[in-house]
Amino acid sequence: MPQNRKVLSILGDSIALMYLQSRARTGLAFHLRTLWLFTCNDIKSIVGPETAFGICGALSGPLMTANESPHFLTIIIRLPQVSIWLWLNLLLFTVSNQSLPGSVKEDAINKPWRPIASERIGLQQARRLLLAVIPTVFFVTLYLGAVEVSVALMVFTWMYNDLGGADDNFFIRNLLNLFGFVCYSLGAIMIASDSRQHPLNCTAYQWLAIVGLVVLTSLQMQDLPDQEGDQARGRKTVPLILGDWMARWTVAVPVAIWSILCPLFWKLTMYGFLVPVAMGGAIVLRVILKRSVAADKVTWKLWCLWTISLYALPLYKNYKVVF
C-alpha cells in the first residue's frame, strides 16, 4: 500500500507538471517570447541600425527630404512607428528563413535557442504563423506607410529563402542582402520623414545606394562566426569558399575604405570622420588579429554599431536641428 501511494503521488505530480507546461505553452507570454526569439538575433543588425538610419535621415531635413525645416519632436515621435515597421518586416523574413530544413540544421549548431531548433514551435505551426504574418505585414504597412517597400521585401525574401539565393553563391547572397538592407533603410526613412508629405530627394537615393554597397562589400562579417553551421547546411559563404584568412581581408579592406568615403560623401570636417574611422579601425584590427568564434561575434556586433555611425552622418552634417 505505501508503495502504491508513492506511485500514485509521482503520477499525480507528473500529470500536474504536464498540465502546467501545457498551460505555459498556450499563454500569451509564451507566444510573445516565441515571436521575440524569431527576431532577437537580428535586432542589432536591422531594427536598431535601420531605425537610426530613418530618424537621422529625416532629421537631416533638406539634405535628404523635401522638408526644409524638420521639427525634432515631430520626427522623434515617429520612432515607434519606424521600429514597428522594421520589426514586422523582419519577423516575416525570419519565420520564413528559420522554417527551411537547412536553417533548422544550421540553427541546431549555431543558434540552438531559436524557436524551431529548440522545438519550441513545430514546422507546421511556423507555416501557419507565416500565413498570418504576411497579410498582417501588408495591412499594417498599408496604414503606416511604405507598403510598396514591404511588398518588395516579400519578393526578396522569397528569392533569398525559397529560391535558395542565400545558399548557392556568396555574391548573389550579398546582392540580395544589399536589396534587403536598402529596402529596410528606405522604408525607415519614408516613415520617419512622412514621405507622403515630404518625399525623398536625389541625395537620399544616392546615400541609399552607398549604404547598399557598404552591405554588399562587408556583410560577410556575419558569416565568420557561423562557419560550422553554414558548412553543415552546405551554404556557400565567403569564408567557406575563399577561406577564413582571405574572407577576413574582404571585410577589413572595405570597412577601412567606407569609413573614409562615407564622411567624404557628406563633405564633413575632420571631426565627422572621427567616430566612423575609429570604429572602422577597431573592426579592421579585430577581424585580422582576433579569429576565434567568440571574438568574431563581438566584431560582428561592432560592425552593426559601425553602420549606425555611418547612418548618423547626415544628422552630423545638419546637427542644428537637434539644438
Class of secondary structure makeup: mainly alpha
Specify the helix fraction band: over 70%
> What percentage of the residues does DSSP assign to strands (E)?
under 5%
In angstroms, what is the radius of gyration? 22 Å
Largest sheet: none
Uncertain regions spanning at least 5 consecutive residues: 10-23
How far apart are the first and last residues' alpha carbons, in Å?
81 Å
Number of helices: 16
The coarse overall form would be globular
Strands, total number: 0
Average pLDDT taken over every residue = 90
Q: Please provide the ordered H/E string of secondary-structure elements.
A: HHHHHHHHHHHHHHHH
What does this structure look like?
There is one protein chain. By secondary structure, the protein is mostly helical. The protein is built from 16 helices and no strands.
Layout of helices and strands:
Blueprint: H1 2-26, H2 28-39, H3 43-59, H4 72-76, H5 79-98, H6 101-110, H7 123-144, H8 147-162, H9 170-192, H10 202-218, H11 227-233, H12 238-242, H13 244-265, H14 271-289, H15 293-311, H16 313-317
Keywords for this entry:
323 residues, mainly alpha, globular
Structure at a glance:
With 323 residues, this protein is mainly alpha-helical.
